[in-house]
Amino acid sequence: MSDRVSWDALTSTALVGTDRRPYQGSLLEDAAVEVARRRAGRGPVTGGAPEDGGHGHVPVGDAPEQGRIEGGGRAHGHPGEAAEQGRIEDGGRAPEEEQAAVARPAADRLATIMAGQHERLLPEWLAEAARGGRRVPPFVLPELLDRGRRDRSIRAHLGVLAGQRGRWLAGHNPAWAYLLEEPTGETWELGGTADRRAHLRRLRTSDPKAARELLEGTWEQETPQDRAEFVGVLAAGLSMDDEPFLEHALDDRRLEVRQQAANLLTRLPGSGLAGRMAARARDCVTITGGTIAVEAPEACDRAMERDGIRPKPPRGTGERAWWLQQVIARAPLAIWERPPDTLLAMRIPEWDAEMKAGWMRAAVLQRDPEWARAMFAWDPIADLLEALGPEEQQRLAADFVKRHDLDSQLIMVLGGVSPHWREELATAVLRKILKVAGSQPWNLGELVRLAGERIDPGLADLAGRYSPEPPVQEVAALLRFRADMIKELT
Description:
mainly alpha, flat, two-stranded antiparallel ribbon, disordered N terminus
């Protein structure tokens, strides 16, 4: 078979379907590999199977050439847009789509992104498209599904965006079977784990009690893995009404379920778990004048394990140090009865690092804004920003950018700030870029990319006017690219 015929047969069958003679080999895997090879500029594999047996797909570039449809004619537009749908050897016809595809400009931009231009914007494109309830066109499906196989971070929206055809393809290619576990909009009763989790999350937002009762009704029938997934959804709308259910979950056989339940009960200062942890913390810590005397736990008993204390420490950490950190992290922060700034200034003769690590973890775990601010001033860890609203995140980050040199910590802090960055933080970052451009231009790459990806794209003109220096103009160009991308999808 010639290269052209092999290519057309593979792509049109995988993306459209055909009534031609049965294909010899693993058609869908071969098609995906052939797509990858073509876009990567590599020659096709002649015959019925790729050199690598259908594994190790290559990242791809430009969209494939237009393919042929039934009867040898050439389809108008990209492969997969033809109306004719046929059969593959054992799979029947690709189902009709129920949702509209994104507009052609948006589809072309997606192909451009996957070809390597601003690839890190792919998750944002997918999220925006899913928000609009659209699907991706067939010609990008093989590459998109293959990327999802390699990159779990982009899977969240693929169940919706891939449409009926994507799920049909996934049903025939084990490498893409993960798609069948992603949410599609099905109901609690009929959906898979991801659909049911999404349904529970929506219900939890509107009616926390009804969501918990729905989960309680099926709890004993759920698989251990599903129980671990579902209990975390209760973080939204968490209240003392959830305590009895979460206390029951502390006795679950699966460690992940117990840990999730303990984490949520830690956020409830009035819970039984919080009270038990407060008693343990008081047994360990005595505050006298300006000194904090600490005695770490001597053992980790079963009751502590049930309340979320992990007995085995990470490599390089002693057992008692590890148990102390966890007790302090799960004890209600209110028990210290002093402002965090005051406590951080006190002398801790022994176990100083462990106490402060415990307080750091407590601020994150309990999402306490006062403690998060104080701990961020003491040690600016990006995780602390999760306890604060977007505006305060940006204000703290802007202050940090103004007084901190460009290094990995600054990048991590900025990475923890929710997009879209408004003018105060955007200006601080642009000023930092301009300053570093004059002294360390080789050190700017990640900061420039992060700015272009996180600043509100509505500030593209502001960035463009800020300075004619190339790194600033690079940020402005990326913001304009994102603005156009969002416009095409909305």
